[in-house]
Design a protein that fits this description.
- It is a single chain.
- It is globular and about 50 Å long.
- A hairpin with a 4-residue loop joins strand 7 (167-171) and strand 8.
- It is built from 8 helices and 12 strands.
- The protein has one domain: DNA primase, PRIM domain (Alpha-Beta Complex), CATH 3.90.920.
- With 260 residues, it is α+β, with helices and mostly antiparallel strands.
- The two termini are 15 Å apart.
- Strands 2-1-3-9 form a 4-stranded antiparallel sheet, with helices on one face.
- The relative contact order is 0.17.
- Helix 1 (6-15) packs antiparallel against helix 3.
Length: 260
């Protein structure tokens, strides 16, 4: 795993990025879909014409179709591509409320997602996240940390499956995103989401970042996009795959620029 170069990002979005698969991911969405890109915030790598914007989150909410989204990504060559989990009534509402989490559950809903990243786990070799941050290794992780994230994700899915029926799993390029897509949960407010998250943390011992599932962070990595920090493709997985999944060898996650 390594950082993808500008040229490798361009090649991926030009030749491999599948709009058919992206359409399938959003097949049940009835809300306007807002996309976003970060060009080089963590990698420091950006096309010359976008160097000033490289650390910003570029929101894409003006496009005719998904083919235009692909054109944006080929042009930006981002390290990361995202979509907005908020479910808006129309585009006007999307532009008015996307940055107002206080409206969650009132003016708009949101897909619930749990983000399980390996760097958040304490490693006997590399230490805690705080220790890794002091060493400027906050986004780095080892095989053991990945396995810890894998185990927690398996346990999380098992517990959530007792209450929710429409659960999706995505390998993000580093860790896992567990998507809860049951209609009943879409319009939960922040307080109700926090109650669920804190219950899981307290009763089941999960080490969870509240920011994503509680709705504070509305963006989530776009399935089938390239995670340029590690040169891996974010892919949906079957829930029963999580325990045996290996991102080092699974060909679905490896972009073609690594196979030559």
């Amino acid at each position: 795993m390594r950082i993808a170069s500008i040229e490798e990002r361009r090649r991926f979005y030009s030749r491999e990025f599948s709009l058919t698969k992206v359409r399938e991911w959003f097949r049940d969405w009835k809300s306007p879909i807002v996309f976003a890109a970060v060009i080089g915030r963590h990698t420091g790598i950006a096309p010359e014409k976008y160097r000033r914007e490289s650390g910003q989150t570029i929101v894409i909410d003006e496009y005719e179709n998904l083919s235009e989204i692909k054109s944006y990504l080929i042009d930006f060559r981002p390290e990361s591509a995202y979509y907005d989990r908020n479910t808006y009534k129309d585009w006007d509402q999307a532009r008015r409320f996307r940055n107002d989490p206080a409206q969650l559950g009132r003016s708009f809903g949101q897909e619930l997602v749990f983000d399980v990243d390996p760097e958040n786990f304490t490693c006997p070799i590399h230490g805690t996240l705080e220790e890794k941050m002091r060493k400027h290794q906050g986004l780095s992780f080892c095989r053991l940390e990945f396995q810890l994230a894998q185990q927690q994700t398996v346990q999380l899915i098992e517990i959530l499956s007792r209450r929710f029926s429409n659960i999706g799993l995505v390998y993000s390029g580093r860790g896992f995103h567990v998507h809860i897509m049951d209609e009943e949960i879409v319009f939960w407010n922040r307080e109700k989401r926090l109650t669920l998250v804190r219950s899981l943390a307290k009763k089941k011992g999960f080490d969870m970042d509240e920011w994503v599932p509680a709705g504070g962070m509305r963006l989530i990595r776009l399935p089938y996009s390239l995670n340029g920090l590690v040169s891996r493709i974010a892919i949906p997985l079957a829930k029963n795959e999580c325990g045996v999944f290996d991102p080092i060898t699974d060909e679905r996650t490896i972009p073609k620029f690594l196979s030559h």
